[in-house]
Amino acid sequence: MGEKSEFEPGDKAPNPGVYMEVGEASFHTEIQDPKMVTLERGETFPQTTNKDRKWKKKSKAQVH
């Protein structure tokens, strides 16, 4: 089984990197000016700007 790719606020970052907000169906929902955070492994994800959003690693969040 692979590593989880979307994270809820309060989850711990599995790896260091830049994470950005995505919608529920990330590649169908375009978010204008999404919030981004840089986290180290084990740091906690902050709250999103909307309860329906999640965090995803930036390199995996950009589909196009």
UniProtKB/TrEMBL annotation:
InterPro entries, sorted: YjzC
Database matches in Pfam families: YjzC (PF14168)
Protein name, per record: YjzC family protein
Highest rank taxon of the organism: Bacteria
Native organism: Paenibacillus dendrobii
Stretch list, region Disordered: 39-64
Compositionally biased residues, Basic residues: 53-64
